[in-house]
Design goal:
The chain is α/β, with parallel strands linked by helices. It has eleven helices and six strands. Strands 3-4-6-5 form a four-stranded mixed β-sheet, sandwiched between helices. Strands 1-2 form a two-stranded antiparallel sheet. This is Archaemetzincin-2.
């Protein structure tokens, strides 16, 4: 295993910048928010740790790309930001990909994210990907296909061998398609990928600074190692993009976990497409994340 460590100076610059205007912007944040974000460059921090690379197949090794610090994010001329007219995020169940989403994008949508049970392969030379997004078009997609615990053991094989022209309303090709049980682990994995792809639509690129939700992942083991939270550098990017109070945001996330966690079963029964979507929300796998949020709130509110 290899650990990717950056110096305190490098992380401080990536977060705060040397640009006087951006430094001033940072200093105007609430003291508690700065205290939390400053954990990025504290060597003894138990909230944010370094990236670990476990094999040559991990994303950061197999897909080298330049890191994006806050200043580069802020100055990106192609970065999209929400507006009062375009402030909604739509989640669309589909069997097609980004071009479909772009055509179907509502006028008030900041972005549209598709979800599918089909494996995603952006290029013939690539391994599968869990998700994909277009930063400029405000569309993204991610797949549940490999998140079910029985995906590999079921030896499921797709039925579509050749390209077929279908009406956008014809979903017959997906009849009897693999549907996983909705478990706590599947929900956790799906939340990671969905929020990662939505992060891209706000202009946040793959993180190479600290362990972070915005790290790339090349396989399921690596995706499971990736945390559900943003590192301080990416957190500042998202806060800049949409504007929020970190304390209130983290409190809302704890409420989201607590609202339906009491008495929720660990696994829901297998179901068909005709079943209602009002399924219980299994959140057992979110326990560690909740404990992490509570630690962060203690720092912000101190």
């Amino acid at each position: 295993m290899k650990t990717v460590r950056h110096s305190e100076h490098t992380l401080r610059t990536a977060l705060i910048s040397k640009n006087p205007a951006l430094v001033s912007q940072y200093e105007k944040l609430e003291a508690g928010e700065r205290r939390l974000m400053n954990e990025a460059f504290q060597p003894a921090s138990d909230l944010f740790g370094p990236i670990t690379v476990h094999s040559q197949s991990d994303w950061i090794t197999s897909h080298p790309e330049p890191p994006q610090d806050f200043e580069e994010f802020f100055s990106d001329p192609y970065r999209k930001t929400p507006s009062p007219e375009k402030c909604s995020i739509y989640i669309q169940c589909i069997g097609h990909i980004l071009k479909f989403l772009k055509k179907k994008k509502p006028e008030d949508a900041f972005c549209v994210v598709g979800i599918t049970m089909i494996d995603l392969y952006p290029r013939d030379s690539w391994n599968f990907v869990f998700g994909q997004a277009s930063l400029t078009d405000g569309v993204g997609i991610f797949s549940f296909a490999r998140y079910g615990s029985d995906f590999y053991s079921s030896r499921y094989k797709g039925q579509v061998k050749t390209l077929q022209e279908k009406s956008s309303h014809d979903y017959s090709v997906f009849d009897n398609y693999y549907i996983p049980e909705v478990t706590s682990v599947l929900l956790l994995r799906s939340c990671k990928t969905l929020t990662h792809e939505i992060g891209h639509t706000f202009g946040v690129r793959h993180c190479q600074w600290l362990a972070c939700l915005m790290q790339g992942s090349n396989h399921l083991e690596e995706a499971d190692r990736r945390p559900l939270y943003l590192c301080p550098i990416c957190l500042r990017k998202l806060q800049c993009a949409i504007g929020f109070n970190i304390r209130e945001r983290y409190k809302a996330l704890v409420r989201w976990i607590d609202e339906e966690s009491s008495g929720t079963p660990g696994v829901t029964p297998k179901h068909s497409r005709e079943d209602n979507v009002n399924l219980p929300k299994p959140v057992e796998a979110f326990k560690e994340w909740k404990e992490w949020i509570i630690k962060c709130l203690a720092v912000v509110q101190n």
